[in-house]
Amino acid sequence: xSGNTKNIVTVKEIAKRAGVSVxxxxxxxxxxxxMIPISEKTRRRVLQVCEEMQFLPDVNHGRLQTRRSHxxxxxxxxxxxxxxxxxxxxxxxxxxxxTLETDLGRAGYVITIQGVDDEYxxxxxxxxxxxxxxxxxxxxxGAFRGSDAYVRLRDEQRPSIAVAFPNDQAxxxxxxxxxxxxxxxxxxxxxxxxxxxxxxxxxxGEIVDTLRERGYQRAIQEAGGTPVLLRANYSVxxxxxxxxxxxxxxxxxxxxxxxxxxxxxxxxxxxxxxxLRVPEDFAIAGFDGxxxxxxxxxxxxxxxxxxxxxxxxxxRHIVEMIEGKNTGGCQITLPVEVLRRKSTGG
Length: 346
Prior knowledge:
The chain has 13 helices and twelve strands. It is an alpha/beta fold. It is elongated. It has three domains: 11-60, 434 Repressor (Amino-terminal Domain) (Orthogonal Bundle); 71-176 and 307-335, Response regulator (Rossmann fold, 3-Layer(aba) Sandwich), CATH 3.40.50; 178-305 and 339-344, Rossmann fold (3-Layer(aba) Sandwich).
C-alpha cells in the first residue's frame, strides 16, 4: 500500500474523540429535527472535532436523512446572438447573484445555474429539477418568455421565486417598483423644465417594459404633455439606432428617458455626435443604476435597482419556504432610487 494513502476518518472516530454516541454525531451532521434534543454545547463540540480531524460528512447520507439537496437552482435566460435584449448581459445579475450566493451560503445552501432557452422552457425540464430533488427550490431571473412555465411552477406548489422581471403569473416574486421608478424619473425631467420627453424602450409587452412605460405615461399625462415612444433593443447599439431616427426629426423633443442605462449611453453618443450639449441642449436619463452610467461624460441620471436587497430577500424567503417557516409565499415590490446626475442638470 502506498505511503500516500489518505486516512479516512469515520463517524465512530469522531464520536470517540468528542465523547458522544455515534447517533449523536449523525444527528448533528444531518441537521435533521429529532425528538431527542441536542445541546448547543454538544453540537459545537462535535463540529469542532470534525474540523480538527478534517472530516467531511457524506453529503448523500445527509440528503437521504433530510430529503434535501441544500441546493438552489438559479434559472437565467441562455445567451443567444439572436436575442440582443437579454438582461444577463448587464452587471445587474452580478450584483444580485453575489448577494444571493453569500446569503444562501450562510444558510447552508449552494447555487447551481441553469441556462434556459425556448427548447428547454417547452420541454418542462425545470420541473424535473424539483421533482428529482436536484434542487430544493428555484430562483427564476427572467428565464421564461411565456406564462405557461410560471403557471406550472405555481401549480407545482414547490418553492420558487421569480426575481427582477417576473411574469404576472408568478406565485412568488421580488421585484423593483418599475412603474413608480419610471414615473419619478419622468417627473424629474419635467421638474427641470422639459415638456416634450421621449421614452425609449423595447415595447415588447413584457412586464418590465409595460410597467416602465406605464409610469412614464402617467407622469406625462399629469404634466399635460404628449407621449413620444421610441423603440429599441436594450443595448448601446439599440439606443444609437433609435436616437439617430429621433435626431433626424426631433420635433421639439428636448429629453429622452431610456428604459435602461445602455440605451441611454447610446443616445448620449448620438446626441454629442450631432453637436448637442448634454444637458444644456438635450437631457438624457436611464434606468437600472449600472456603473456604466457613472463613467460617461456627463454621468447619467438613472433609477438604481435594489439588486443587493433583492438577493438578500430571495435567499431568506426561498430557504424559509424550503424549511417550512414560510407558508404564505412572498410578493415583494421594492422602491427604485432616482440618482440625479449631470445628464439632466438635476
